[in-house]
Amino acid sequence: QVQLVESGGGLVQAGGSLRLSCAVSGPTFNNYRMGWFRQAPGKERSFVAATSTSGLSTYYHDSVEGRFTISRDNAKNTVYLQMNGLKSEDTAVYYCAASSQRSASAIRRSSAYDYWGQGTQVTVSS
Asked: What residue ranges of the chain have pLDDT lower than 50?
C-alpha cells in the first residue's frame, strides 16, 4: 500500500515562499508519476504541477508557471513543490498524488492518480 504524507504548509505573506514536501512510503516510488493539486474553499480540486518518474519532465498549470517548481528525489521517496512569489489566490489545501498511468495527456487529470495524501494548508495573506 502506498501512503503519502505532505508537510510544509503554513501562513505566508504575499510575495513570500514555501516549500511543500510529500514523503511516499511503499515500494516502487520510482514507478509513479507524481503530482500536486490544490483545492480552495468552494472550488473543485485543480491541477498544479506534475513530474515524470525520472523527474526530467515537468508540467505546470499556467497560473503557477514560472513561480512554482516541482522536483523529486527518488533516493528519498519524496516529491517537492517550491512555491515562490505567492499570491492570495494560491491559498488552498495542497495535495500530492501518485499516478501509475503512462499517458502524458492524463497527467493533469485528478482521475489519473491512484493515491493521495491528506493535504496541507497554504494560506497567503495580502
From this structure: none
